[in-house]
Amino acid sequence: MSGKKAAPAVIIIFLMFLLITVLYLFAGATVGGVPLWSLHQRLYYIPVGYAAYLFGRRGGIVAVVVACAIVVLHSWLPVGESAVLGFDTWLEVGSLIAVGAILGTMRDTEQTKNADLKRMSLQLEGAYKKLEDRAIQLINIQDYTQSILRSITSAVLTVGPDGSVATANAAAERMLGVSEFEMVPKPIGSLFRSDGGLGGDVAKVLAGRLPLAMRETTIQTVGGRMLHVQASTSCMRDVDGDNLGAVITLEDVSDVKALTDQLIRADRLAALGQLTAGVAHEVRNPLGVIRASVQLLEDAHGDAARIKEIAGVIKQEIDRLNRVIKALLDFGRPSTPTLVRTDLRETIAHIVSFASRFALQSGVRIVQKVPEDLPAVSGDPDQLEQVFLNLVTNAVQAMGDIGGIITIEARSDEYFVEVSVADTGPGIDPADLAKIFDPFFTKRADGTGLGLTVVHRIIEDHDGQVEVESGPGGTVFTIRLHVASTD
Predict the structure, then answer these.
(1) Which sign, positive or negative, has the C-alpha torsion 348, 351, 356, 362?
(2) What pLDDT score was predicted for residue 409?
(3) What is the chain's Cα-based Rg?
(4) Are the C-beta atoms of 161 and 243 separated by less than 8 Å?
(5) What does pTM read for this prediction?
(6) Which partner from 86, 135, 222, 469 sits 20 to 30 angstroms from 17, CA to CA?
C-alpha cells in the first residue's frame, strides 16, 4: 500500500485501538457476573484483523504487539476489580498472535499471487504485443513479396513435394494463358502440351538428385502457344532444411532466340564469304604452281631428271590440295555427336600416349594431371579425342624446336568438367587472339587454318565451352563439358 493510502488506514486503526482501550481499561462493571473488560478485550481482534488485512503480516504483527501489550499491562496493573494475569490472559494473547499471523500471512500470500498475476499479465501483454507486431511484419513481408512476384516479368511457379502447383504469379498466368485458380493444385505437367523436359527436371529436384536444374528449351502451352524459355528449377526448403517442394522460373527468350538466330545466320553468311575467299586462296596457289610446273615440263625436252623434279613438285601441290579439301569436308560436313557417358581419363591417356611420340622429337614433354575421381562427361569419345589431339598438336607446333612442356590438367565441380591444355610457348599475338577460331586463319605456311575451327564446332555441338588465354609465357585452352547424368 502506498504512503498516501496508508496514512488514513493507520489513523483509523489508531482510533479503533484508542476507543477499545478506553472501554477496556475503564469498564469496571459486570453484566451477568461477567466483567465488561473481558468482553471489550475481544474487540482487539477487529483492529488486529483490519491491520493484517491492509498491511499483511508486518501490519498484523505490529497490531498484535500493541493489543497484547495493552492486555498484559491491564492484567499487571489492575484497574478496579480486574482479574490478575492468568491463563485466560495468555490464551487471549496467543489467540491475538494467531489471528494476526494467519490473516497477515493470508494477505501476503494474496498480494504475492496478485503480484505474480500482474507480472504474468504484463508479460503476456508484452508477448501479445510482440506477436502482434510480428504478425504485422509478416503480413507486410508477404505483401512485399507478392508485390515483387507481381512485378517481375519472369514466370514463377511453386510446386509441392508431390509435384502439384501451389502458387503462380501474374507473369506465369500471362505466359501460360491459365489463371492461378485453374493451375492449383494440378500436376505441373498438365500445364503444357509439351514441357520440353521441364517435368523431368522437377522430378529430379523433388527427389533430391539435383539441387538446381537449368535448361533452355521450347515449351508448348495448353493453348498451343510455342515459347522458347530459359527454365530454372531449384529446391525449396524451410529453415530446418526440410524439403517443401520446388521453385520454377520461366523466362521467355523467344525474341532473344529469334534475334540470335538472325545474328547466327548473318555470321554464317559472313563466314561463308570468308570461307570462299580462303578456299579460293588455298586452291589458287597450288593450281598456279601446277600450271607453271606443266609449262616447265613442256620445256624439259625429255630430260629425265628435270621431268622427275617437276613431277615431284606437281605431286606435292596435289597433296596440298587434297589436305585442304579433306579439312574443308571435315569442317563443312560435321557429323552429329553421339553423346554417351565418356571417361575423359581414358581419352586423355590415349592422346598422351599417341602424341608423346612426335612431341619428344621436338623436345616437348607432356604432363597430365587428371584426378582418379574425375566424373564422366556426356560426349562423343571420337570427337573429343579429335579435339584434344588438335590442341596438343597445335601446342607442339607452337613451341617449334625450342621444346617445352605441355600440361593437361582436369578438374570438376557438381555440374562441369574442365580440361585445360597449357603450353610454355611464345604465346599468341593479342591481335590474332580473336581470330584463331576463324576458318583458314593460320600463321604456319603448311597449315590449313581449320583445326581450331573444328575444335570450336565440336565443343559447341556438345553444348560446352572453349576458352583461350595467352601471353608471353604460353597459351592455355580450356574445355568445359557437362557432367554425365547418373540416370
Answers:
(1) negative
(2) 92
(3) 51
(4) yes
(5) 0.42
(6) 86
